[in-house]
User: Fold BLOC-1-related complex subunit 6 C-terminal helix domain-containing protein from Coemansia javaensis.
Amino acid sequence: MDKAKSIEEYMERIRVLDALEQQAMGLSRMLTTYTDRLQERLEQRVGIEEASEAVALGSIANLAAAVERSTQQKRALIGKCRQLDGEMQSVQPVAAKIQEIKQLLDVMEYRRRQQGA
Assistant:
């Protein structure tokens, strides 16, 4: 009977070991599934972050280019203003001469009217 009991205990241990092996395999499959899903999600997040970074860097580059163009346009405008200021200085004496001529014409017109009246 000891031998039968010993075989029964041995068979029971085999069943327990088989059950443990099955559970271990199930847990291993679950762990593999979870790690695969985690890897997929991490890869998706990395892709999203890379795309976000590219958009941000593109926006910064576009902003920098726009600021640079604006600065260049302002410098060009300042140059044109200086040029116009210089050109206006040569016009001022002409404007003064025109004003003198107008005053002389007004005086002549006034005298002509007095002589005709």
Notes: The radius of gyration is 49 Å. The chain has one domain: 1-89.
